[in-house]
Amino acid sequence: MRVIDFDGKQLGIFRVDDAIKLSVERGLDLVEIAPQADPPVCKIIDFGKFKYEQQKREKFQRKNQQVSVLKEIRLHPNTDVHDFEFKTKHAINFLEEGNKVKAVVFFKGREMAYTEQGEELLKKFIERTENCSKVETPIKMEGRNMNVILVPDKTKIKKSK
């Protein structure tokens, strides 16, 4: 097997028992790195330290992983202008943080007769947030709710900043 030192220097090709003896002399472990190679490659390292550094790398990768969260903005067909503007500001903040936004218009009772008002409200919502988002799913009616899902558009957000 080919043996590599802990600092990456090749020591040469050894028999298995000679490689183990060499690692014991140095007070380190012999770890098989590439078993499919011809001859197999082993490295003399401190296995505990190796596992610790590997866990540290994995933790760092998980930490830098982005998780997308779906935030919901609830509206009604008769939502007032000030309330609409306030909720739009919140949606823009959510989008700039990298979260998806689901805008939902709820229809209660006889409001179902005014679905076109809800659609106009959602179109206005899309228009107000278009400088930092793009539409993932278009406006659709689901039971008593009409909704649209917006995702952050990183290119538009960078331009606006």
What does it look like?
It is a single chain. By secondary structure, this protein is an alpha/beta fold. It folds into 2 domains: 2-62, Ubiquitin-like (UB roll) (Roll), CATH 3.10.20.80; 70-160, Translation Initiation Factor IF3 (2-Layer Sandwich), CATH 3.30.110.10. The chain is built from 5 helices and 8 strands. The protein has a 4-stranded mixed beta sheet. Strands 5-6-8-7 form a 4-stranded mixed beta sheet. A hairpin with a 6-residue loop joins strand 3 and strand 4 (41-45). The longest helix is centred in the middle third of the chain and has 17 residues, at 47-63. The protein is rod-shaped and about 85 Å long.
Radius of gyration: 30 Å
Instruction: Give helix and strand order, one letter per element, not per position.
Output: EEHEEHEHEHEEH
Cα separation of the termini: 57 Å
Q: How many strands?
A: 8
The CATH architecture of the largest domain would be: 2-Layer Sandwich
Percent of residues in helices comes to 40-55%
What proportion of the residues form beta strands (DSSP E)?
25-35%
Main pleated sheet: 4 strands, mixed
What is the residue-averaged pLDDT? 89
Topology-level CATH name of the largest domain:
Translation Initiation Factor IF3
Quickly count the helices. 5
